[in-house]
């Protein structure tokens, strides 16, 4: 697949078919993703790849913890719940469009809670990736991990697979840390669901619009 086609074709998929993804294919994608650049080539990304029984245990324990500790949604590193405009508005628009597609009425807290909980099932994808970063590294390293994640997602698309990046995995990190034996000196920063899209699911028809170039780019010296 041409790179430009992969860029257009990649979108966040939130319903997957059960078809397995072999370990060798995930390894191939990780090799490709590791071509991502990083400041001074420090390559700070670390990733736990979960499937099978470990994935099931992770999912069960995180979801059980979430039911008994619904407020435990703080990341271990600084994050914000409410953002200033225009960011908050964009977030709300995405939520409205997504919940509209799957028929969750505004204000239906129970349905919202259940749908968000699907993050912790990797949206039924057969493989999940959990990214961590050394706590001592600075914010530039988070940029590096983002580069890796996007390279991974484009490589996956080029190989016919689909993905969803998931900040949701920095909630309930105590459980994830315990199950995957993540060292205390690393933050759990995000996840990726990996598999084959269930094209019959309405959630996967969502197209998240982008702002026009003039809204974010300032040109100098042209
Ligand atoms: C760092 C990051 C974290 C994200 N976290 C989540 C998440 O926890 N759950 C989710 O459903 N989507 C998540 N997304 C997907 C975004 O909502 C999505 O990328 C955005 O709406 C643009 O849509 P697109 O990926 O389909 O182009 C995340 C994306 C990024 C880059």
How does this structure look, described?
The chain is an alpha+beta fold and 222 residues long. It has a domain at 12-20 and 42-74 and 85-137 and 163-209: NADH Oxidase (3-Layer(aba) Sandwich), CATH 3.40.109. Helices cover 41% and strands 13% of the residues. The chain is built from eight helices and four strands, in the order ααβαααβαβαβα. The chain has helices at 3-9, 23-33, 52-68, 87-101, 109-117, 139-158, 173-180, 213-216, and strands at residues 46-50, 127-134, 162-166, 186-195. It has a four-stranded antiparallel beta sheet with strand order 1-2-4-3, sandwiched between helices. The longest helix is centred in the last third of the chain and has 20 residues, at 139-158. The model has no long low-confidence stretch (mean pLDDT 96). Bound molecules: flavin mononucleotide. Flavin mononucleotide binds at residues 11-12, 14, 94, 119, 164-168, 190, 208.
